[in-house]
Amino acid sequence: MTANLRGVPAPATTSTALLTDMYELTMLQAALHGGVAERASVFELFGRNLPASRRFGVVAGVGRLLDAIERFTFTDAQIDYLHSAGIVDDDTLDYLRSYRFSGTIRGYAEGECYFSGSPLLTVESSFAEACILETLALSIYNYDCAVAAAASRMTIAAHGRPCVEFGARRAHERAAVSAARAAIVGGFVGTSDLEAGMRYGIPTVGTSAHSFTLLHDTEEDAFASQVASLGPGTTILVDTYDIERGVARAVAAARAVGGELGAVRLDSGDLVAEAFKVRAQLDALGATTTKITVTSDLDEYAIAALGAAPVNSYGVGTKLVTGSGRPTAALVYKLVERAGADGQMQEVAKFSTGGKSTVGGRKWAGRVLDAAGSATEELVVSARSEAAGLAALEAAGARPLQVDLVRDGVIMEEHRGPDALAAAAERHQVSRAELPYQGWRLSEGDPAIPTRHVDIDNRQVLHG
């Protein structure tokens, strides 16, 4: 199914500047006072490890982040709040009044798969400008990547059968819109959420709930009313009372107006057994074109279990919008390089124990493919310059993964908007297809491919 994605962006006047943690502004204040706020800095957003049971991650949220950065300006009301609450001093407020991100951001294109240590974002600017984007970037990427990864696993399990996002009622009302978008990146083809449909041009799906059937005096009346309004091609929910009777009545309602029923929906019971029984009943009635869609707390494992059943599509809600057990992608945002007092760039790294150390220096990433086009490793190169990093990737036969998202404060428009979302969904299918077979497994195990880090400059890393 190909979606024609056309949407309406979020209002440009909605500021995102206070979608942040207080310590980012207090760090800014201290850096301004200490005279180091304008030091050239490089931050990276990455995951130390993939969440358990995830053999690959999925990059999602790129377009949303670019929209949010565009709106990351401080309004008079926000400045007044920060002043009245005593969050930061007047000098810092003066800086924030004119804040606009003017740096450069590179990152993995939306839809790409990623692995441990993959530099999903590289933010280059002054410390002051980059520091205060931390929470915004992490909140978008951690949620969207988690949902997209769950969606990808579900579409793998579906083996080409369409999956539709039905999770709006199981999430925060704004998170639901973001989840619908991330689900499209992961391979879903539609949503029930109308705000997501309007904002991102996602095809919307929905007909009726049990309450509509219960509203009427008889099930026949409910089905006849739905068909009269929505046409015989509609999808009718048939398990309010007795499924067998419901199927017969739904088919009869469509035929009463001269058509064949589009689909029946099953939302309860043993979905595998019921799907077989309903398919047999539909065929016996001659309704061979009527399809079966199933809902009811599906996840990738339930979808896989339905693989042999005569099901045509899936509606997925709770498990999708909560990352199917992994509600965050566990990404972090760390300073990896900054200018010293002499103006020279210096690698910096965190040397904490307990798995929280980081690798210093800006990085260039590529995916190494074998002769058959199958991915064999994620190569991450620490290098002083883009030219050196890209040369190292080319020498290893690696496909470069990073693209410019913001260049000197200017957003690269090809990475946001409805067309970018459609491109991200297509990109994910290609990226996922590169992975070796074991990377598609739903069971826990090693990442689909290993990550190899190379520091071609062998610079000393500052550690205090």
TrEMBL record:
Transiently phosphorylated on a His residue during the reaction cycle. Phosphorylation strongly increases the affinity for substrates and increases the rate of nicotinate D-ribonucleotide production. Dephosphorylation regenerates the low-affinity form of the enzyme, leading to product release. Pathway: Cofactor biosynthesis; NAD(+) biosynthesis; nicotinate D-ribonucleotide from nicotinate: step 1/1. Signal peptide: none annotated. It is an enzyme of class 6 (ligase). It catalyses: 5-phospho-alpha-D-ribose 1-diphosphate + nicotinate + ATP + H2O = nicotinate beta-D-ribonucleotide + ADP + phosphate + diphosphate. GO terms for cellular component: cytosol. The keyword Ligase applies. InterPro entries: Aldolase_TIM, N/Namide_PRibTrfase, NAPRTase_N, Nic_PRibTrfase-Fam, Nic_PRibTrfase_pncB, Nicotinate_pribotase-like_C. Keywords: Glycosyltransferase, Ligase, Phosphoprotein, Pyridine nucleotide biosynthesis, Transferase. It comes from the Bacteria. One of its GO terms (biological process) is NAD+ biosynthetic process via the salvage pathway. GO terms for molecular function: glycosyltransferase activity; nicotinate phosphoribosyltransferase activity. The keyword Ligase applies. Its EC number is 6.3.4.21. Catalyzes the first step in the biosynthesis of NAD from nicotinic acid, the ATP-dependent synthesis of beta-nicotinate D-ribonucleotide from nicotinate and 5-phospho-D-ribose 1-phosphate. This is Nicotinate phosphoribosyltransferase. It comes from Actinomyces ruminicola.
